[in-house]
């Protein structure tokens, strides 16, 4: 029933309602579809643990690799991610929820089997890595791709047009398929101009292409081609002739290709722009030594090569003339390492490569025994006779070489380099800067090495040989900055060896036997001329000690490696090294680092010391060093203090992770021991001093007498010291200066009575020591008269004369009484010390009469004369 009104026409209103209902139904369906689509996109992993790199206020990259993801991580739609790494997961399809502006995507090492059309939604994608999946190829790649990697997938023959439309593709990595035509993957009858780098290598993929035909690369105009490890047996002529702009070619590790393949490659690429050619290991590892011939290399000279790699080819000989005439003069790098090269004329031909900068001849040994396997090529072995053309060319080579090496014979083309004097002048290529000659089993005691012409050699790698002793310098090569002669069993290096290398900056002489030799280099002359030396490596040399002045002349050293030796004490002076950065003393026998060693370290504080692996001690003797470690930043010590221990005084091991606590404990121990040591030492020294002093004081006169007696015996030529059968004087008068007048008067009276008298004021020999004059006078006098007064007892020399006379009486004259005391003062006896009282008590003496005496002076003089004459 329709309700009619003025404002509404009922039939018209019904139609409107039906339209509205239809629109609502369609909207509902659209919302359901959108919800389903959104739900599909929202099927992602929350909190996937991706690592984001933040750049310029936006997220620039996300690393979600190795997360075991089966569905992709969730990404905010508003993010500006341009690079996502999803390698090493378990994804089975291309993710649809990635940011639409993504440029770099790595999906390698997953389980993706179908690309579908998902990649087409990422219209700015430039880098795509799909290695190691399970792909069956389709053509649904975005046209924006510049880099594409498809190695290690389940690929059959190259699918036609699979890569058509990729007009910007610059770099392609794909497996090399047997009998496949890679060009079919691109648009038919169209040259692929954008592709410049093609990688078919089997090193990181699957490559099985035993035969290469001209059709393989016909569509391309490449600059880099890698066909290494592809099982190549043959490369047909004209296969590479279309690649006129090729700069890099790697055909290495095709073990059955042989030098015949090298000949075909160079024939196709002559007059091209090829710069780098790698034909290493194009022969099997085992078999007869191979020969590089003039025929195999005749096209090389037409290629402007700069780098040539011929490593690991069992190469034993290079035919005369190959280096001189066939090797391009543009060569800068030549590598013939890991072969069996013997010394021959081709070594001398190297001088013709005047642009050569790097030469690698390392790993020449007899390790490749003459065993055969299924792939050896007898055609390339060292067999065959020289034809007429080769003979003429060889004669020309000899004529050229005689300019540099006059010892080459004029009438023979056979010469053994082994028989030549190793000290002849060798001519290097004038631009050669680096030579690798390690592991060539060179066994010599090296003498003077002379180099002629222009020698610009800067880097020498000569490690792992047998240079037992090195005697002479390299004359003519004075620009060497890097020298490595490690692991050469060397026990001696003359101080002249490095004197000719003033530019030397890096010196590595580790793993030798130089410990005993270096210990004797106390004057620093070995490295005295190497003022620019910055790195020195002496590790593993059985060094027990380095002299203090070993680096005296090297002020620019920055790195010093002395690890893995047997050093117990570090005594090297390094205070002058202002640029020093690292001292490696790890794995030695250092127990302590005393104050002297710390004092000898560089004056600045911006350097590192490595001490791990040393038996450090936690004793009072090492306390200063431990305090020093604790006081400076730990970044200067490569010591894992958590796991490092030191030996305590009782032999226990203490962890150094709590070094402050350890130092507190050590400080208490050392403080108490210090006091005990100080007091004990002081007491012992005091007691010993007293005992020695007492002994010396008690026997002082005896000691003095023995001294002068010994001197008299040992030096009989001294005047007044010759032994006499008869005494020179009847009496020697000893007196103090205050009694000189009395003594002179006494001497005159006695001499008037026919006696020979000696007094020091008159008879001592000038220029002879007083003590020696006294002992001579006593020894040469029959009787010694002492004028005893208070002044006499106070005089040192008077008492010396008295005690010397006692020693003379006891030790020389067998206890004979030769002493006569004259007392001028009768009270002087009271002043005499106890040590002289025995003389007064046991010996006779005369008193000079004073005014109170009952005797007269004349009686005194008569008694004195009688006392002296009685001794005759």
What does this entry look like structurally?
The protein has a 22-stranded mixed beta sheet, with no helix packed on it. It is of the alpha/beta class. Helices cover 25% and strands 15% of the residues. Residues 1-13, 27-41, 369-373, 417-421 and 717-725 have low confidence and may be disordered.
The biggest sheet, with number of strands, parallel, antiparallel or mixed sense and barrel status, is:
22 strands, mixed
What radius of gyration results from the CA coordinates?
A: 52 Å
Helix content: 10-25%
Distance between the termini: 189 Å
Shape: elongated
Tally of helical runs: 18
- Number of DSSP strand runs: 39
Overall residue-averaged pLDDT value: 83
Percentage of residues in strands: 15-25%
**Unreliable stretches covering 5 or more consecutive residues:** 1-13, 27-41, 369-373, 417-421, 717-725
Decide which structural class fits the backbone. alpha/beta
Provide a quick synopsis of the model:
This protein is α/β, with parallel strands linked by helices and 872 residues long. Helix content is 25%, strand content 15%.
Task: Show the helix and strand layout.
Layout: H1 10-41, E1 51-55, E2 58-63, E3 83-85, E4 104-106, E5 127-129, E6 147-149, E7 171-173, E8 197-199, E9 211-212, E10 224-226, E11 234-235, E12 248-250, H2 258-268, E13 276-278, E14 290-292, E15 307-309, E16 315-318, H3 322-326, E17 333-335, H4 346-349, E18 358-360, H5 388-401, E19 425-427, E20 434-436, E21 443-446, E22 449-452, E23 459-461, E24 466-470, E25 474-475, E26 482-484, E27 492-493, E28 506-508, H6 515-519, E29 535-537, E30 559-561, E31 582-584, H7 595-599, E32 608-610, H8 623-631, E33 645-647, E34 653-655, H9 659-698, H10 700-714, E35 729-734, H11 740-752, E36 757-759, H12 760-763, H13 770-779, E37 781-788, H14 790-794, H15 796-812, E38 819-823, H16 828-831, H17 834-842, E39 845-847, H18 857-869
Parallel strand pairs: 2-3, 3-4, 4-5, 5-6, 6-7, 7-8, 8-10, 9-11, 10-12, 12-13, 13-15, 14-16, 15-17, 17-18, 18-20, 19-22, 20-23, 21-24, 22-25, 23-26, 24-27, 26-28, 28-29, 29-30, 30-31, 31-32, 35-36, 35-37, 37-38, 38-39
Antiparallel strand pairs: 1-2, 33-34
Helix pairs in contact: 8-9, 10-13, 10-15, 13-15
């Amino acid at each position: 029933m329709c309700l009619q009104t003025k404002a509404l026409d009922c039939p018209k209103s019904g139609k409107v309602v039906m339209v509205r209902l239809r629109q609502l139904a369609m909207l509902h369906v659209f919302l359901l579809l959108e919800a389903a689509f959104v739900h599909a996109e929202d099927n992602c992993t929350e909190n996937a643990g991706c690592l984001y790199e933040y750049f310029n206020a936006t997220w620039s990259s996300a690393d979600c690799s190795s997360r075991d993801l089966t569905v992709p991580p969730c990404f905010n739609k508003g993010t500006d991610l341009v690079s996502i790494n999803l390698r090493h997961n378990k994804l089975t399809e291309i993710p649809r929820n990635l940011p639409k502006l993504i440029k770099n995507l790595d999906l390698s090492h997953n389980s993706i089997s179908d690309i579908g059309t998902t990649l087409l939604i990422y219209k700015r994608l430039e880098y795509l890595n799909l290695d190691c999946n399970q792909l069956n190829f389709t053509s649904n790649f975005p046209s924006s791709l510049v880099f594409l990697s498809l190695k290690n997938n389940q690929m059959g023959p190259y699918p036609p047009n699979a890569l058509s439309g990729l007009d910007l593709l610059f770099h392609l990595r794909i497996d090399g398929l047997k009998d496949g035509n890679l060009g079919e993957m691109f648009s038919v009858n169209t040259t692929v101009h954008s592709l410049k780098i093609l990688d078919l290598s089997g090193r990181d993929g699957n490559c099985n292409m035993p035969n290469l035909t001209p059709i393989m690369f016909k569509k391309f105009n490449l600059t880099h081609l890698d066909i290494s490890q592809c099982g190549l047996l043959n490369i047909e002529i004209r296969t590479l002739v279309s690649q006129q702009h090729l700069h890099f070619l790697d055909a290495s590790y095709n073990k059955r290709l042989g030098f015949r393949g090298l000949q075909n490659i160079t024939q196709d690429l002559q007059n091209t722009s090829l710069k780098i050619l790698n034909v290493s290991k194009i022969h099997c590892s085992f078999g007869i030594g191979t020969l590089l011939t003039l025929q195999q290399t005749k096209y090389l000279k037409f290629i402007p090569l700069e780098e040539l790699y011929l490593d690991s080819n069992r190469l034993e000989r290079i035919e005369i003339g190959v280096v001189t005439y066939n090797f391009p003069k543009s060569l800068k790098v030549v590598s013939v390492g890991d072969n069996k090269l013997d010394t021959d004329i081709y070594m001398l031909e190297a001088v013709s490569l005047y642009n050569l900068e790097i030469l690698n001849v390392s790993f020449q040994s007899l390790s490749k025994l003459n065993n055969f396997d299924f792939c050896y090529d007898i055609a390339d072995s060292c067999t065959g006779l020289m034809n007429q053309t080769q003979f003429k060319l060889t004669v020309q080579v000899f004529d050229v070489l005689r300019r540099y090496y006059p010892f080459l014979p004029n009438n023979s083309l056979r010469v053994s380099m082994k028989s030549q004097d190793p000290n002849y002048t060798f001519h290097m290529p004038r631009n050669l800067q680096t030579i690798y000659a390690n592991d060539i089993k060179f066994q010599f005691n090296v003498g003077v090495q002379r180099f002629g012409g222009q020698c610009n050699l800067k880097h020498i790698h000569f490690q792992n040989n047998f240079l037992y002793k090195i005697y002479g310098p390299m004359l003519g090569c004075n620009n060497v900055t890097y020298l490595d002669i490690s692991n050469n069993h060397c026990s001696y290096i003359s101080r002249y060896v490095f004197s000719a290398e003033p530019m030397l900056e890096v010196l590595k002489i580790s793993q030798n036997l130089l410990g005993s030799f270096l210990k004797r280099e106390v004057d620093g002359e070995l490295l005295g001329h190497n003022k620019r030396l910055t790195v020195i490596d002496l590790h593993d040399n059985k060094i027990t000690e380095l002299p203090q002045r070993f680096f005296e002349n090297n002020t620019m050293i920055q790195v010093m490696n002395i690890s893995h030796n047997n050093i117990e004490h570090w005594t090297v002076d390094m205070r002058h090294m202002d640029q020093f950065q690292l001292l490696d003393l790890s794995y030695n026998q250092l127990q302590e680092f005393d104050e002297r060693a710390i004092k000898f370290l560089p004056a600045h504080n911006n350097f590192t010391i490595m001490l791990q692996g040393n038996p450090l001690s936690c004793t009072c003797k090492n306390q200063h060093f431990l305090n020093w470690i604790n006081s400076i930043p730990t970044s200067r010590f490569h010591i894992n203090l958590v796991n490092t221990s030191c030996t305590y005084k009782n032999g226990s091991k203490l962890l150094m992770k709590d070094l402050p606590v350890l130092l507190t404990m050590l400080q208490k121990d050392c403080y108490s021991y210090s006091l005990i040591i100080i007091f004990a030492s002081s007491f012992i020294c005091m007691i010993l001093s007293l005992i020695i002093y007492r002994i010396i004081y008690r026997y002082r006169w005896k000691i003095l007498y023995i001294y002068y007696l010994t001197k008299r015996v040992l030096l009989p030529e001294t005047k007044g010291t010759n032994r006499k059968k008869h005494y020179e004087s009847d009496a020697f008068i000893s007196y103090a200066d205050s009694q000189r007048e009395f003594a002179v008067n006494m001497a005159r009276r006695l001499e008037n009575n026919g006696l020979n008298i000696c007094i020091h004021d008159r008879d001592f020999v000038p220029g002879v020591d007083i003590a020696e004059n006294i002992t001579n006078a006593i020894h040469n006098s029959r009787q010694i008269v002492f004028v005893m007064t208070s002044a006499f007892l106070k005089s040192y020399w008077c008492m010396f004369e008295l005690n010397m006379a006692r020693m003379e009486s006891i030790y020389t004259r067998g206890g004979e009484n030769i002493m006569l005391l004259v007392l001028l003062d009768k009270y002087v006896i009271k002043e005499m010390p106890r040590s002289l009282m025995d003389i007064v008590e046991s010996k006779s003496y005369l008193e000079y009469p004073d005014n109170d005496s009952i005797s007269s002076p004349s009686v005194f003089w008569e008694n004195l004369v009688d006392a002296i004459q009685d001794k005759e």
